[in-house]
Amino acid sequence: MHRRVDNFVRTGFNLDLQPNSAQSPSTLPKLPTFKKVLINACNSKCRNVDLKFFPESFERSKLNKTRINKKTKIMFWTVEFLFNKDNVKKMLHDLNETISLKELLNYKENSKKLEKINRKPNKEDDNYCSSNIFVHLVHQEIENFDFYLKKEGGKADALTYFKLDINETLKFNLTGKLIHEFPTITILEKNNPNDTLPTNAFVIDLERINAEIN
């Protein structure tokens, strides 16, 4: 295996995004233990997620608070949400992988429940509580929106999105995916011609596939 590729696999770093492209792979910092634990957890058969990390100097790395509970073995993800039409990005931390997207994101029914199922919220952090983050969804039902995860890796000219199944867990929706630090989920309003994916995008509908399997 080529040294550069081998180092990518061994460390979990995306070398193509290093600030200094001339930097030798042998001089790259090693991953902290907690990141190795996360990679191993993601690589397990029950998840099958290919998790990669950027160098800690990268903003995306600094924002990532994904963790795993050592006793329950449950992962709690940082997730970035992109409101496509408004080009607004918001983040939630400590999202329990065993809970459905619908439960995690439903503003009216679950803002209090989120505080119970996740770690104790930091009241000074407006990005924590769904009631602050999803003001865009107030007075609208979650079913009026579609949620997409852009496929990472592959050919540069191939634009593929996974349409997520909001009735399934975060764990289910991330299975088999390549994730850099944490997932970014794009939110589109249904039946809105001004809120769509790029015209050349190919969509894999996880909800439809799941329904056909079951």
Automatic annotation (TrEMBL):
Pfam families: BCD1. Coiled coil: none annotated. GO terms for biological process: box C/D snoRNP assembly; maturation of LSU-rRNA from tricistronic rRNA transcript (SSU-rRNA, 5.8S rRNA, LSU-rRNA); snoRNA localization. InterPro entries: BCD1 (IPR051639), BCD1_alpha/beta (IPR057721). Residues 45-195 form the BCD1 alpha/beta domain. GO terms for cellular component: nucleus; pre-snoRNP complex. PANTHER family: BOX C_D SNORNA PROTEIN 1-RELATED (PTHR13483), ZINC FINGER HIT DOMAIN-CONTAINING PROTEIN 3 (PTHR13483:SF11). This is BCD1 alpha/beta domain-containing protein.
